[in-house]
Specification:
Blueprint: H1 3-35, E1 44-50, H2 56-67, E2 70-73, H3 74-83, H4 89-97, H5 104-117, E3 122-126, H6 132-142, E4 148-153, H7 156-164, H8 175-198, E5 202-206, H9 211-230
Parallel strand pairs: 1-3, 1-4, 2-3, 4-5
Bound molecules: adenosine-5'-diphosphate (ADP), cytidine-5'-diphosphate and magnesium ion.
């Protein structure tokens, strides 16, 4: 091969390498964006907390209809993970049956995936954070601070009545597990509500009232947020 052709070949090889290296960087950047943390995507998060049976899921469905949020229930995500046959399935199932809180790492991964896969930018996160570990780890991993915390306040007596009548075939809606869940709520979840209270973020709702009346109070909270944003 003439020397000239060899030089040309070498030059085109080098150019191809530079091009590939450049494209690699572009692809890396695109991947980083796709897999990036939930905070990189501008997200509004409202935590929906309250004891088991206080009406979180019921009211979240109403909020979705009226205010365009996406509802992410930590409990629903964990139950879906059991059904999917994941390697964590048995561990999650055992913890739910005992009313215990699943390690944050597992729940946060599910929440983060759901946020990133969704086109919406505002989320109701229902039943999370349920303890201090949930709260701190979510903040650390996602860097997301909740806009506010909707807290459904209801007596144990009323919550117990509702859970025993829920009829969704849940393995944890039996009196033995319900008592354990109430204990976990008082000992581990209420301190999280108190933490956000100290930051002025809690919007407390009287959840013992009928569904429609509770939703009137919920609407007032979201309307006030929208008015504040428009001002
Ligand atoms: N305000 C309410 N009054 C009476 N029953 C309610 C009320 N809100 C919800 N329920 C019923 O109570 C049960 C528990 O509600 P749910 O929304 O699943 O609560 P949570 O998600 O907080 O456990 C359901 O059967 C639901 O239909
Ligand atoms: N952040 C969370 C939320 C739920 N869970 C588990 O899932 C169970 C059911 O949660 P849920 O939010 O669906 O229950 P409800 O409060 O809606 O009745 C809890 O009792 C926990 O065992 C958890 O481990 N961590
Ligand atoms: Mg629920």
């Amino acid at each position: 091969m003439p020397l000239y052709d060899v030089k040309l070949l070498c030059r085109s090889f080098v150019q191809t390498q530079i091009y590939l290296a450049f494209m690699g960087t572009v692809v890396d950047a695109a991947n980083k964006e796709a897999n990036g943390s939930a905070a990189e995507k501008k997200t509004t998060v409202v935590f929906v907390l309250g004891g088991p049976g206080s009406g979180k899921g019921t009211q979240c469905a109403n909020i979705v209809q009226h205010f365009g949020y996406t509802h992410l229930s930590a409990g629903d995500l964990l139950r879906a993970e059991i059904k999917s046959g994941s390697e964590n399935g048995t561990m999650i199932q055992n913890m739910i049956k005992e009313g215990k809180i699943v390690p944050s790492e597992v729940t946060i991964k599910l929440l983060q995936k759901a946020i990133l896969e969704n086109g919406n930018d505002k989320f109701l996160i229902d039943g999370f954070p349920r303890n201090e570990e949930n709260r701190a780890a979510f903040e650390e991993v996602t860097k997301i601070e909740p806009e506010f915390v909707l807290f459904f306040d209801c007596s144990e007596e009323e919550m117990e009545r509702r859970l025993l009548g829920r009829n969704q075939g849940r393995e944890d809606d039996n009196i033995e597990t319900i008592r354990k869940r109430f204990k976990v709520f008082l000992e581990s979840s209420l301190p999280v509500v108190q933490y956000y209270e100290s930051k002025g973020k809690v919007r407390k709702i009287d959840a013992a009232k009928p569904i429609e009346e509770v939703f009137e109070a919920v609407k007032a909270v979201f309307n006030a947020k929208d008015e504040k944003a428009a001002a």
